[in-house]
Amino acid sequence: MTMYVPQLENEGSRYQAIAAAIERDIQVGTLKPGDRLPTHRDLADRLGVTVGTVTRGYAEAERRGLTQAVVGRGTFIRGYQREDPWPEHLAEPGMVDFTLSLPLHLPEEERFLAETLSELARDPRIGASLRYEAESASMDQKSIVSAWLQRMGLFPKPEQVLVTCGSQHSLNVVLSSLFQPGQVLVTTALTYPSLKAIAKSFGLKLRAVPMDAEGMQIEGLTKALTSEPKPHGVYLDPTLQNPTTAVMSLRRRKEIAEVVRRHDVLLVEDDVHGFLLPEPMPPISSWLPEHSVYLSSVAKCLNPGLRTGFLCAGTALIRRLLSGIHNTVWMPPPLMVELTCRWLANGVAVRLIQAKRLEIQRRQMEAARILAGHDFLAHPYGYQIWLRLPEPWSTEAFVLAGAEAGIKVIGAGAFAVNRLAIPQAIRISLGVPSWEEMRLGLLRLSALLASSPSSYF
Ligand SMILES: Cc1ncc(COP(=O)(O)O)c(C=O)c1O
Question: For the whole model, what pTM was predicted?
Answer without folding.
Answer: 0.80
